[in-house]
Amino acid sequence: MRPSILPSEQDWAVCRDVTRAHGTTFYFACQLLPLRTRQAIHAVYAWCRTADDVVDDAGHRDHEDLHAQLDAWLAAIDSPSCPITRAFSWVLRTHGISDECAHDLVSGVRMDLDHLRFETWQDLRQYSYCVAGTVGLMTAPILGCRDDTALPRAVELGVAMQLTNILRDVAEDAQMGRIYLPLDDLHRFGITPESILALQPDGDFEGLMRFEIARARELYRSARPGIAALSVPGQVATLSGSQLYSKILNRIEARNYDVFDGRVSVSTSAKVREMPLVLASVVRMQLTR
C-alpha cells in the first residue's frame, strides 16, 4: 500500500534539481505550470532519469547486479525510502497512475542494459514506447487529461521525442557501442553498423537522416490533437516541450545532418523566442473547442 503522506519540500527539491540538471527542455517547458503540478512532473522525470542512469553509469559492473538494482527501484514504489521514490510514489497514487507504466519503462531500460539492437522500426517503436511513451502516459493525468482516448497521442509524443533524442545522439551512443536506428533503415541507405560505430558512416547518411526526421515530424503531427485534452497550463507546457524538442530536428538539418561534430541543442534564447508562438497556439485551441 502506497503511503498517503505528502512528500516534504526537500523531496520535491531533489526531484526539481534532477530535472533542471538533466532535462533542460523538459524543465523549461514546466516553468509555467502551477507549483504542485510542476512538482509532480519533476518527480516523474527524476524517477525515470534515475532508472535510466542505472544503465548509463553501469561501467563494467555485473549485469546481474544492475538488473537487481532496477528491481529494487521498482519495489521502492511501494516502499519508498528516498526523496525521489517518496515523491514518485505519492504522485502515482494521487493521480491514479498505473504502476504498469513504471514497469514498462524499466523494461525499456533493461533493453539498453543488454545492448539490444533493433531490426525494424516497429522494434524501435516498442522500445521508444517503453522509455518515453510511458512518460507521456504518466504525465498526461498530471497535466489534466481526463479523456482516455487522448492517451495514444501522449504515447506518440513520447515516441517522437525519443526518436529526436536518437537522431541527436547518434555519435554519443556510438561511442558507447550503441546503435538505436533500425538496422533495416541502415541497410536501405547502404550504411553498415560498423561505420556508425567508427563515427564515419558510409552510404547515404544524409538520406537516412532526412528519412528519420520526416518520421519524427509525422509523430509530432500525430500527437498534436491530443494536447487539446489537457488543462490550459498542461497545454502550454506540452506544446512548448513539443515545439522546442522538434526544433532539434531543424538544428540537425541546419548542420547538413552532421551529428558527429558536437551535440545539437536549442539555446535558451531560442526557447524564450518560441513562447509567444506556443501561447498563440494554445489560444487557438481554446477558440476552436
Can you describe this structure in just a few lines?
The protein is mainly alpha-helical. It is built from 14 helices and no strands. It folds into two domains: 8-100, no CATH class; 115-289, Farnesyl Diphosphate Synthase.
**What is the overall silhouette?**
globular
Tell me the strand percentage band.
under 5%
> What integer is the average pLDDT?
92
Assign the CATH topology of the largest domain. Answer: Farnesyl Diphosphate Synthase
According to CATH, what is the class of the largest domain?
Mainly Alpha
Structural class label: mainly alpha
Percent of residues in helical segments? 55-70%
Please provide the ordered H/E string of secondary-structure elements. Answer: HHHHHHHHHHHHHH
Structure annotation, total helices: 14
Describe the sheet with the most strands: none
Whole-number total of structural domains: 2
Q: Span from first to last CA?
A: 40 Å
Overall CATH architecture of the largest domain? Orthogonal Bundle
Topology:
Blueprint: H1 9-22, H2 24-29, H3 35-56, H4 63-75, H5 83-95, H6 99-113, H7 121-142, H8 151-168, H9 170-175, H10 183-188, H11 193-197, H12 205-223, H13 232-254, H14 268-287
Helix pairs in contact: 1-3, 1-5, 3-5, 3-6, 3-7, 4-6, 6-7, 7-8, 8-12, 8-13, 12-13, 13-14
Describe the structure.
The chain is about 70% helix and about 0% strand. The chain has 14 helices and no strands. α3 packs parallel to α6, α6 runs antiparallel to α7 and α7 crosses α8.
